[in-house]
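Model: You mentioned two targets. I'll fold them one after the other.
Researcher: Yes, keep them separate.
Model: Target one:
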Amino acid sequence: MSACRRMLYLVKHRSLLTHVRRNLTTWSPVGAAFNARPHRKLDLFQKNVGLFGVPELSCPAGFQVATEKALKNTEHLVEKAYSSSPGVQTVQCFDQLSDELCKVADLADFIKVAHPDPAFREAAEKTCIEIGTVVEKLNTNVELCKSLKNLLDNPDIVAQLDPDTRRVADLFMFDFEISGIHLDDTLRKEAVALHVKLLDLNNEFLVRSHMPNRIARSAIPEHLHLHFATEGSFIQIGGLHADSPNDLVREIAYRIYLYPNAELMGCLEELLKCRYKLATLVGYESYGHRALKGTMAKTPGYYTSLFFFSHNRDIFIIQTAKDFKMMRDMKKKLSPRHSELMPWDHPYLSGVLRAERYNIEPSLYSPYLSLGSCMEGLNNLFSQLYGVSLMSEQPRAGEVWSEDVRKLAVVHETEGLLGYIYCDFFHRQDKPHQDCHFTIRGGRQCQETGQYQLPVVVLMLSLPHPTKGAPTLLTPGMMENLFHEMGHAMHSMLGRTRYQHVTVTMSCFVLKSLIPSLGTRCATDFAEVPSILMEYFATDYRVISQFARHYETGQPLPESMVARLCESKKVCGAADTQLQIFYAVLDQIYHSKPQNRSTTEILKDMQQKFYGLPYTPNTAWQLRFSHLIGYGAKYYSYLMSRAVASMVWKQCFIEDPLNREMGERYRREMLAHGGAKEPMLMVEGMSNLFATNTDRISCLPTNICKAPFCANSLRFRHSSYPGFLPDYGVVSPLASCHI
């Protein structure tokens, strides 16, 4: 971007600077935009442009209009695919077909969980179901598959395809195969029926796994009522209260929130059975084998043996035992009468140990970490690494779903506009409490227009609003989460894939994980690498020193405080990682061959073998494991991605985290390809480490051992959704509580 244009932009947004109290320094436009409440002029004559600028979506009924338009275009593209001669144009037609459906489905997938208006959410949900049904039909359309098969079966034509086009063609064929296209009519119909049933089961489990439980107020001591929400004569518990200093509050929350629900248990059992049946029907040994095709791990057995049955497991067990001993000693000190270490103690006591040893009370850091200063830091980092700037833009009427949503244009110094990031950062009623990234529109080269379709994403956080006296102040954990999610966003922005089908489409909600043609084309165990790598930047003083300043005095965050924060992450790191290993193993076992025992019995067994803290009777943690939907058989991805991110950081950025040459190399080798290149080839291109595929994978467990643990990205986080409250009676969940 030219110096003249930058100056005009600063002049245009100079009014924002006056809204933020600052004594010694001033904010940049992007910093001011996030440190002040939005000031939007009311213009009664301004046209409603619709959500994300889609004209049809100015009202809930517009979703039906947009859906019908997309389906009409889909019919035309299907006919075009039937009639086109085999060649590059075949793949381009398939990709345009995928894009036509994704542009509506991805947007609806977000709106159905994020829009404050129930009418919009309901309309978006209907669109998701309608598009999903069409996709299932397309994935089993024999004539459509034949048009692609005619291409791939012709060696002369295949030889002329460039690598990206060949990979996309293979991915589309893979979608047909896992949907049962090769089966006879009877079995293919059975596969479709299973797909449809799984849509319903996944959605039911995802929603109900977040619902709160309740218990009679009389079952809980009156002095503890203030710690929980109340509803008439009931106490409502919508989470684990893992950070509560009161051990009895933590225990009550754990026992009630995780108390088994028979209907939800049945839903999960049926879901796992259907996944296995579908996988075997289309030719796979298990659902895990089907899910891991195309990932870095390749197969469940190879991954499991490397992580859990090598010498690294012994390292974890020894260090985890030391961590648990520290926690037990701390619990004896805090609660002499109830000193046994239990699962509900782990998150709280590990935090206490970190804070006590290194004095990292979050309130000491927050004044230096205003939201605006953190956004300035991200802007500076991206500018130095990639030549990219974040520029605040005023949304048009009807473009956003809440007035506190900010819009950022991502602009490269020579390439121009790369895409848009909508920042839905602030808490509001009925908003999911989970930090996440949504793709609204994927990037692709449009053959029909000759232009590049710019990516659009949403970042969702749940931060406190700024007040009259202060901007939004972040804890270190919130700041790292912000950097983590922005890593996903920049992966989308900096990718420049020719095909939408291999763009970065990472989302934590249901639709993408259920419909193959709308799936995450960047391998799941690679997709978290850019976001986890950003956590390393977030804790490096050379980066932090550029933006962490006291919001009132302008004083920089002392280097000693950053050093203490980094050292604190090593405390109980093995126990935290061991917990994630337990979750990953549990996920793998659930998606292997049927075990002929209940999911709770499997949980109890795996917890004993791979965690170390005792199972609590009459609890079913697996019913809150919502990652079984979007990350089914792939929860290990967090650990795998952390290992890869650790390698990249140590080899490429640890010496100079602001090195432009290395930033450009990182973009070229890892970010630009989306899912158009094998993930391990991207890692190899960046690190030049490995001679063989075995070398590539086998070093990963070691890197997990050595990588600093960040609880924010690996610790399982629960969300709370209002809704049906199952009545479990009065005292049964608390029968063994220390009340």
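Model: Target two:
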Amino acid sequence: MSHYRRHSLEPSIDSITNRFRDSLNFQRDDDDVINKPDFRELDYPLKPRVSSSTAATPAASGSSSSSSGSASGKPSVTSQLAKRSHSGELTESGSATPGSGAKNRNPKPGHRRSASAGTPLIYSGLAFSPVKNRGGASGATSPSPGVVPSGNICPSGKIPKTGMASRASVKPETLFTGNGNYGHGNIVRGGGGKSKPETRDPEEVKKAGNDMYRKGNFSEALSLYDKAISMSPENPAYRSNRAAALAASGRLKEAVKECLEAVRLDPSYARAHQRLASLYLRLGEAENARRQLCFSGQCPDQTELQRVQTLEKHLRLCSEARKIGDWKKVVTEIDAAIANGADSSPQLVACKAEALLRLHQIKDSDLCLSTIQRLDHHHHHHHHTQAKLFGMLCDAYVLCVQAQVDMALGRFENALVKAERAMKIDHSSNNPEVVSVLNNVTNVAKARTRGNELFTSGRYSEASVAYGEGLKFDAFNSVLYCNRAACWFKLGVWDQSVDDCNQALRIQPDYTKALLRRAASYGKLGRWDDAVRDYEVLRKELPGDSEVAESLQRALLNKSEEHKYLGYNNEVEEVSSLDKFKTATSLPGISVFYFKSSSNRQSEAISPFINTLCLRYPLVHFFMVDVDESLALAKAESIKKVPTFKIYKEGEKAKDMVCPSHKLLEDNVKHFLL
């Protein structure tokens, strides 16, 4: 009787020692690392080791039927586990260990143990299983390496080349079931007969899925595993293989569901428990990970246990820091937990976002949350013990944080929807934090809506009261502060408008609307220096905004009190000596020197415009030099024609102009000023 080996794709969790994942650092524009599959952890299959010596050699004699759920080369967890074996289970070596005859239990559907269990349609290594030909006789077994017998099926539908190990073909071969001129058992590519080709053996379908998995075609692998499951729904190994493909596709919660189904079908299935522990670790669920590692009181893998203990430590320190409001410590511990392997944990990402929100880094907090996939709590299987963080179910906690960030950014309707969802998920425990978030979001949203209605109807005083009511429930809501500042502005209470804008900007420093409102309020108060400063910041943030540019110019024009404080004059100052000229050119800021002659008609024509510019641009120093009275200065500056203008900026000459037009002169003054 020929011997064959079944190749399967489940590497041991023992092989997982390194895990990639960048911790979430939102000084960058993150790259979606949260859902990226980790091939090492999720048991990316190794190609089966096939040789002429091992292909035809059964397992070493004297050993009992080994559980393919344990790592290759390691003893079984218990004798009970040793008796339980699953054909097609993902092993570290990439090949399944054949059974030991009488010691194997009767297999479940799809659990064919040896050639004696039936007539397998499988080629493995260089040994061929018997396949009946048209006459009913079995084909020859173990032919020479140079001969490929007709009518035999290779693993996953592959035909080996002469003298070589099998290689992947473009399209799997299948048994032709039509009534064309082919004998039963012959291989055809893609049909060609009147009936659609079929694969009757779930093991063959599973092996085709394994091939797709090796090639990284996880979608096709899932489709094939689904087909194998439909043919043999009680086979836990098929569920486990499907979990591996889901995890490699980044669908970790669905992978958890498949593993839970595998252990439901076979509670002693060690491989599924190990995979569950690995998945729970990535999801940041330390308690569930520990439960799977230590199932039925078995001794867990020490490497994985160490990682679970490290995750538990970071979560404990994070919880302690959160209780005392040490939000920087919270960020540090969450980053460490993610680096330890919890790289696909929505609740840990949400915890970091909450800390950033409390540190008034609202946009970073929002960016952090944007990496979390849309939550769907229906993913949870009824056997799954839902994890908690800070006493809340994880999904409820994530929604609570999202609601608070939405509220801080003025997305009140979204905040209310998420807070209500959180309460629905966590209704059984009635957690006080979830209740508090829902209560706050509800009242703040109601206050904002009422305030907006009153403001729109021109009832500014009542609107300011309504916004104030909302601030009682959320004292750090920058939107409510900014809206109330608008009420004070309309009522002419400029100083209170400035105060509320300051509060909004302390909470959200890059809040453009609050900065605009404060600049306008400064202008109403005649605090032109403060107004100019705000408008200059806005001009950098909104370079194409003409309204901001005009407001800045108006603020500059009205800065008369600042002129006196800085020693600027409201009129053109005359310079007659070389020493005074040198002193004037060294002044900070912008200085314009106007060289003229009383007898020159162009000079006399432009002089009134110079006086206008002096009033229009109070931050610019304007000086006049009469070349007829200051011949030495004119000669030193090489003045050959009047009117001539020289512009200095921060003590350095920036521009020379001879007989410029009014527009050209003013454009250059504005250019160097702004």
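Researcher: Noted. Anything on target two?
Model: Residues 287 and 664 are 74 Å apart (CA to CA).
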